[in-house]
Amino acid sequence: YLNFQLDYADQSDLESKLKNSDTNLLVLSNKKISNLKNDMNIVIEKTPIGMNKVIQTINLHFLKNNFVKQSEQKIGSYKLNLNSREITKDQLKLNLTEKETNMILFLSNSKSPVNIDRLEKEVWNYESKLDTHTVETHIYRLRKKIKDIFNDDNFIVSSKDGYNIS
User: Fold this and answer.
1) Contacts of 87 (CB under 8 A, 6+ apart)
2) If you count Cβ atoms within 10 Å of the first and of the last residue's Cβ in the chain, which end, N or C, has fewer?
3) Integer distance in angstroms from the first to the last C-alpha of the chain?
4) Dmax of the chain from CA atoms?
5) pLDDT tens digits, residue range 6-36?
6) Looking at residues 125-141, what average pLDDT do you find?
7) Nearest CA to 100 among 151, 152, 135, 72?
8) Greatest mean pLDDT among 21-35, 38-52, 57-71, 102-116
9) Where are the beta strands (DSSP E) in the chain?
10) CB 163 within 8 A of CB 156
11) Cα 70 to Cα 80: distance, rounded to the nearest angstrom
12) Distance CA 34, CA 72 (A)
């Protein structure tokens, strides 16, 4: 079910509508409009266009925006992008491996500290009690990377009960 109002606006009308609107606006145009957020502006280069194609274009636009929004997780003062496997804070960015990303997600979603055995099982899928230092090594390297880029010594905290994200 769609409920919307179609309206025509030139550049000056558009600026006025953006300032005075109390509803959501979606702008269809033949070129990118610089002062609009990406999620508000859909570019349709070829016209005329049928209504089915307009609806399909709008649906694709919303799906892409939802995908981008869902892929970004807020973890404390950091943002973790699951698509690009990057963690950012302020203007700084750090590329992560798949295991580092999975470990950060698992730790951040856990309410209490996570011990090494559970991390081995949940993140690395190890089932047996192997004499391995995989978890400790990965945490050490990840802490070092975060310290080098973000100067943060307390991102992953260890206690007698395990590890957690501060």
Assistant:
1) 75, 78, 79, 80, 81, 93, 94, 96, 104, 146
2) N
3) 43
4) 69
5) 777 777 787 777 777 666 677 888 888 877 7
6) 79
7) 135
8) 102-116
9) 27-29, 41-43, 72-75, 78-81, 86-89, 92-95, 156-159, 162-165
10) yes
11) 11
12) 24
68 is written with which tokens?
A: 């981008």
Q: How many residues does the chain have?
A: 166
Q: Which amino acid, one-letter code, is at 29?
A: S
Q: DSSP assignment of 46-93, as one string?
A: S-S--HHHHHHHHHHHHHHHHHHHHHEEEETTEEEETTTTEEEETTEE
Tell me the one-letter amino acid at 25: L
Helix (H) or strand (E) holding 44: none
Question: Residues 59, 50: contact at Cβ < 8 Å?
Answer: no
Provide the residue type at 161 as one letter: D
C-alpha dihedral (47, 50, 53, 57), degrees to nearest 10: 50
pTM for this entry: 0.62
Cα(66)–Cα(71) distance, integer angstroms: 8
Which phi and psi (to 5°) does residue 127 adopt? -100, -30
The three-state secondary structure class of 35 is coil
Distance CA 11, CA 53 (A): 24
